[in-house]
Each structure stands twice: as structure tokens, then as C-alpha cells.
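Many introductory courses stop at the sequence. We go one step further.
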Amino acid sequence: MNTYAYVGGNPLSRIDPFGLDTVVIISDGGILPIFDHSATFVDNGGDPVLFDPGGSFNSGIRGSGDFFSGEEANLNKFVEFQKSDGSKVTQFRFSTTAGEEASIVDRIISGGGVSPGLCAVATSSVLSGVGPFMSFNGSRTPGGIENELRSLCESRKEICEIK
């Protein structure tokens, strides 16, 4: 059975009409790792959620440190915000099911906001053990998450795209 039939069997070059992707965003702040950041965006079937744990993104309506949903959960604006201070931003896009996305969103909502400096721990906790992140152990640093996700993507290219 081809689980990617809805995108013509090619999840990397086709658009997902059902909005079933989870994106992990890693910002490399440069020389000092204290400026690195990790966040998670879940398409959530058209009702997106952006988890910015310990972050400072401002949707134009309010600041973060927690999560945004609906129109405030704008992946492109978040990435541009991260790049605005000179950070290099890497996005890891994974194909996820509606059930997997619901599980990640439930973890985001139940976990609440976190203090600055704990973004990687919070990001790891909402992803570990769910769907494509089943073997993801997580990390205490955004760079550690990036390394682990890069390895995961190399071994599972059919479900992951690095941008």
C-alpha cells in the first residue's frame, strides 16, 4: 500500500492537499549557541499550530514563548523573523498523518510555555515517539536536534524534506 498516494506517490515534490506536514525549524544564531532556537509548525489539517517555546516571535497581535494557532501560526513570517537577526534557518518537513498531528498538537497545548533556553527540550518532548519521530531521541540543544533530524531525513527521504 502506498501511503503517499494522495500526493501521487511523491511527497517531496508534490503539494499535500490535506495539510498534513510537521515542520521543525532550527535557527543557528551564529558563534554563540545561546542564540540558537528550535520550534515546531504543524499544518494540522488547515488549522495550523506554531510552537515557539521560549521564543520571542510576535505575530503582530501578541508575543510568544508558547504557541500560536490559526492565522497567527504563520510559518513564513516566523522563518523571516528568525532570519531577521542574521540567523541561518533550516526547516525539516515531515509527512505526518492527522492522528500524528493531533498527538503533537495535544502535547504542545498540554505542555504550555517554557522559559528561554529550554526550546530544544520542549521541541523534543512534543515530537519524540510520534509517527516519523518514533526513533527521535531529542536533544537539549537546537544543534543536537538538527543533527538528529538530518540523520533521520537521510535514512527516510520518502517522508522528509530539508529546506
